Amino acid sequence: MPRSVNSVASRARRKKIMKLAKGYFGRRKNVWTVAKNAVEKGMVYAYRDRKNNKRNFRGLWIQRINAGARQFGMSYSQFMGKMKANNIELNRKVLADLAMNHPEAFKAIVDKVK
Question: Which contacts (CB < 8 Å, 24+ apart) does range 101-107 have?
Fold first, then answer.
């Protein structure tokens, strides 16, 4: 019996990867082996950087809260310590937004914890 090759499925698999490689430069977009490697590497970076993105945003929020708190004579750690002591449960994302865009509301929070 002759060997049967499921070329429909093979083609679909390749097509899926080639579609993901669209927009890459040079042979990475149209040569199967190069494109496959490039897409796999890109997926690894995407997975890793979804985690890093969360880290980066937390760092940004901390910087903004620190800058806002220092305008009222407190450091970030003092401010967050007093927030916990006063049972004010606002997360860093919200506090950073207030510090940036609504300084009067942030001042009210600082006054409350002082």
Answer: 103/68, 103/71, 106/68, 107/72
